[in-house]
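Assemble and predict.
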Amino acid sequence: MEEVRDGRVEKLAVLFERHQVMLYNFFLRLTGNRNASEDLVQEVFFRILKYRKTYQGQSKFTVWMYQVARNAHVDHLRKQKPEVPLDEQFTEISSTETLPAEKMDAEIDVALLRRALDQLPLKKREILLLSRFQEMKYKDIAELLGCNIGSVKSAVHRAIKDLGKIYCQLQGGITL
Amino acid sequence: MTCEKIIEQFADHLTGDLDEKSLAEVQAHLSSCPSCREELESLSAIWTKLGVLRLELPGPALRQRFYSMLEAFKEGLGEEEEQKASIGERVSAWLGNLMPRRPVYQLALSILFLAIGLGGGFLLTERSRTASKIEVAALTQEVKDLRQTTIMSLLQQKSPSDRLMGVSWSTQLQQPDEKIIATLLETLNHDSNANVRIAAAEALYLFYDHPQVKDGLVRSLALQTSPLVQLTLIDLLVEIRERRAVEALRILIQNEKLNPRVKKRAELGLAQLS
């Protein structure tokens, strides 16, 4: 990133190749919308270029990148229409008869988890995604969110606990 | 240890970031505290379950859009730098503002500056004028000679990047002598590296009013085999409206092995020139 900041903008391609899939999935799990997620990844890299001179190099690049990503997401939410729930976008299980029972269970599991995540309030979902899927350490998340590491840990704890509750409720509502 | 202290460690337990000592403490507590044990078990279960959510790959359009954005940005950056170059203009505008509005004052100010300039200049240079003139001329010649020698030497280096540097330096000369022109033509016709040949063609284009250059460029067309060099030459010849190139282009088009893109460009060039 230092090289990008100092004028070698073509080096951004390396960062793009390294982080695009993770960022895309971060947004996908936040917004539940594939097109919007691709737009957001594009927006993040555009902002990185635009604000490259503000990169201080003191914090990790990923911390800075997720800061940009969160801001882009906030802006996206402001101008966004009501979102399509995540699980509606994923391929529905077309026919239960053609699937072996185990696979069917797994598919339902995935759908349920996605729905449960979707119902988790945004702040909790975000912190959970960062710690569970985005390979970020608690201290990096603390730096990103501007709070202390203890609050991050207890927030993750609460988010998981809440997710578990929602998941259990959803599971109870499904007839197998 | 209290339940509260233990529960604080659960987040680290989930990510596997507990050190050995803390892990032992947590395990010791769990063996005697069913409620904490149950809590950690249910947290771990859901944490692990989240692993079934696989990464999805974004569509190929994302990569395409990113690279076109990067290209566009790089071009924009070039323009930005050009704008920076116009700082000179801004400074002159600022100086312009300092100028008095009324013509009479403007005239007075000009005369004052002129007087200061002339007086100062006269005092400073009266004695050394002749001597310094000769000195400057000698130095200028020396620098020019040195630059030409360096260019000649660079153009004969083994490394293509050195030769490229030589070509690039040659473009800074105001009036290259015949030796430089001949060496550039030699480079254009016989250098082993296509990039060096292209650079030489472009450098020669800058000196196209030199008698040997136009002729050399036309003749070189028949000698080139690389499509890129051929394309560059055709573009340059059309650019300088060199009518003698018509014949060379005709011969080139008749070559059956000619790259179709080059052929197309040559036909277009022919139409532009004739």
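The radius of gyration of chain A is 18 Å.
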